[in-house]
Amino acid sequence: MNRYENLANVLSDRIEQGLYPAGIRLPSVRVLSSEHGVSVSTVQQAYRVLEEKQLVEARPKSGYFVKEARLQAALPSGCRPTQRPVEISQWDQVLELITSPHLPGFVQLGRGSPDVTAATLKPLSRLMGRAGQHQNLNAFHYDSIYGSEDLREQIARLMIDSGSHMDASNILITTGCHEALSIAIRSVCEHGDIVAVDSPSFHGAMQTLKGFGMKALEIPTDPVTGISLEALEMALEQWPIKAIQLTPNCNNPLGYNMPDDRKKSLLRLAQRYDIAIIEDDVYGELAYQYPRPATITSFDDDGRVLLCSSFSKTLAPGLRVGWIAPGRYHDRALHMKYITTGASATLPQIAIADFIKQGHYLQHMRRMRNQYQRNLCTMTDWVMKYFPCGTRVSRPQGGFLLWIELDERVDTQRLNRLLEEHFVQIAIGSIFSASGKYRNCLRINYAQPLAAKTERAVQQVGQMVSFMLESC
Q1: Which CATH code for domain 119-361?
Q2: CA–CA dist 186, 306 (Å, integer)
Q3: Where do the H-state alpha helices sit in 307-447?
Q4: For the chain, what are the domain ranges?
Q5: For the chain, how are helix, strand and coil distributed in percent, rounded to 5?
Q6: Which long-range contacts (CB under 8 A, 24 or more apart) does 101-108 make?
Q7: pTM confidence score
Q8: Per-residue DSSP letter, 249
Q9: Residue 385 pLDDT > 90, yes or no?
């Protein structure tokens, strides 16, 4: 971390511990400069970080003050205990979300897409162009089925922050995280097998299970600590589960970071029942805390965890560059890669590797984490302002997705139909369940710079929910 980030973390810890209570004036820039042996500009940068995190506010001619604690909505409730494996449904609703039009004036609140307009992505555009011009046509040939060695080495270095010390030779480049998950599932499961999933869960992984003729067993999930280990153990005793698929860091859609002790306990369960864990870490780099949370893979000593990720959420989805570290299933995963896409596109791999090597990636990540955390505060405030009383809201620890639970009388599929007449779309809750649960829930995205039209769209959603309740 830079010096200003270290100082910002120190001050943030003091605020959270109550050493600097709400409303109190914080030490002046010059006092902190002297106390910590840093420059005045370093202190000013640290205070700017705390302002972006909504922890402090600057008052003209008075200095910096700790902001009053923000009101928080109640957390979403957990789902009912698991009962039996089910065949996955909801494909039509997923297709509707992913094929929605990009029309002028249409506010898309449902997609899981990052902000691709940031200035810190401009070097990547230049590197893409340069790679095409100066690679002596190498970028137009098939790459190795393993993927670019340069990129795999850079990924291995990035994963050190997550506690994962892996060799580049253990990483396979894929066409996005979706292919990585597909490879992982087919490497450890067969048609008719049962896979335990956190619930609510990423709709893409569940639709992959559906496509391969597998069943999902939904495990209740806490919005703060993650998948219920008690319910999972009961399910493992009752059913012949082949694998556990989950997103423990910056979860989609709930946003939690699973505590390390629970990750270790989950791994011990998998070892006891000798099953694989398919870990989706696609949002892990976007955790608001530093260092970023550890992966389950970092605690794995027998190679049973298949770690999947991509640059779709950290950089841009259109790059279509992901990766998998399949552990003991490497040979099987390599074969699955060969029979799906073979080698992945070469040009974006070259550009991303250079983008990371030149230091642009870490700079971009710092900017986006700050932006997303700042946007989360704003979006949560809008939801509390415009939605009916009793609305429950998640508290993401990273990423850019907010999960909202409404009154049980609200059907979000019908809500979405009404909103489309006003050029607004949400992600309905039922697509995050294998069996169509969470019909009164929705997910919205807060990645883009929040403009007046976004606030109007959120207000429109809240007003429509109120209208539906009044009509009941």
Answers
A1: 3.40.640.10
A2: 11
A3: 330-340, 346-357, 360-386, 412-420
A4: 3-66, 91-117+365-471, 119-361
A5: 45, 15, 40
A6: 103/423, 105/423, 106/423, 106/424, 106/425, 107/423, 107/424, 107/425, 107/453, 107/454, 107/456, 107/457, 108/425, 108/445
A7: 0.88
A8: S
A9: yes
